[in-house]
Amino acid sequence: MPDPVAAAHLAGPYYVSKALADAMTNTIYGIQYFEPFQIVSWQKVYGHLYDKASDVFNPPYDSFIEALLPAVNYPADLAKLPAVSTVPAKARDAVFSPSYLADFDSNPNNATIMAAKKQDLLGWDPKAPTTLCSGSGDPTVKFSINAQALYDDFRSRGGVNVTLVDVDAKIKQMYGSVLSADQESFYVNYHGTYEAQLCTAEARKLFDQWK
Questions:
Q1: Mind listing the pLDDT tens digit for each residue in 61-90?
Q2: Which residue, 108, 119, 107, 106, is CA-closest to 35?
Q3: How far apart are CA 120 and CA 115, in angstroms?
Q4: What is the pLDDT of residues 13-67, one digit of tens each?
Q5: Cα–Cα distance list, 77 to 28, 36, 45, 151 (Å)
Q6: Which of 95, 83, 191 is nearest to 146 (CA)?
Q7: pTM of the full predicted structure?
Q8: Tell me: the pLDDT tens digits for 142-199?
Q9: What is the DSSP string of 121-189?
Q10: Distance, CA of 137 to CA of 133 (rounded, Å)
Q11: CA distances from 152 to 61, 123, 135, 160, 190 (A)
Q12: pLDDT at 3 (0 to 100)
């Protein structure tokens, strides 16, 4: 397979362990979907994150969440979890057991944290021109922990072929009326709708230079 000519990474989670810890503490939009998906997936791969689902998840979610994720019948499957419009902290507390959250917060050897560290994507150097695109207002995949952290990691080793693009100003210019009228709708749609289309356009700009 030939080496890539150019690469664009769009609002992805790169510093997974730090992002997960922040998501649990400060809560992100969609925490009731993304974090259980990660934890259940790692349990299936590594097999030692927990002994039984109720060690991590509250009822009734503990009875079906291992079979629910990854969701096949979208969005009906995810409708079994708290709605995306639920206040993130309330969604977290509804899904996760208090004892699990306490251990996650206080135990540096928490099995979930150890599994998350295996997913971190820092410490490598891109050979091809690379664009990292995200929005600094993203309430789901936070800019500073992910795109900025990866960019800084590349640059710390002298990487000069990397560009960091923040589309937050464009999002607020285009969807400022939504933010003013319905803040909840704005943040629910930020990552998957507003940011996605603008970062896809940034990727197209990069690839058009190399086609």
A1: 999 999 999 888 888 999 999 998 889 999
A2: 119
A3: 10
A4: 999 999 999 999 999 999 999 999 999 999 999 999 999 999 999 999 999 999 9
A5: 20, 13, 22, 35
A6: 191
A7: 0.91
A8: 999 999 999 999 999 999 999 999 999 999 999 999 999 999 999 999 999 999 999 9
A9: --S---SS-EEEEE-TT-SSS-TTTTHHHHHHHHHHTT--SEEEEE-HHHHHHHHHHHHHH-HHHHHHH
A10: 12
A11: 38, 11, 16, 11, 24
A12: 84
Q: Are 115 and 16 in contact (CB under 8 A)?
A: no
What is the layout of strands, in order, in the sheet containing 7-10? Answer: 7-10, 130-134, 162-166
Domain segments of the chain: what residues? 7-14+121-208, 16-117
pLDDT of residue 1: 67
Residue burial 124-136, b: 16+ Cβ < 10 Å; e: rest: eebeebbbbbbbe
Look at residues 13, 27, 46 and name the one whose alpha carbon lies nearest to residue 121.
Answer: 13
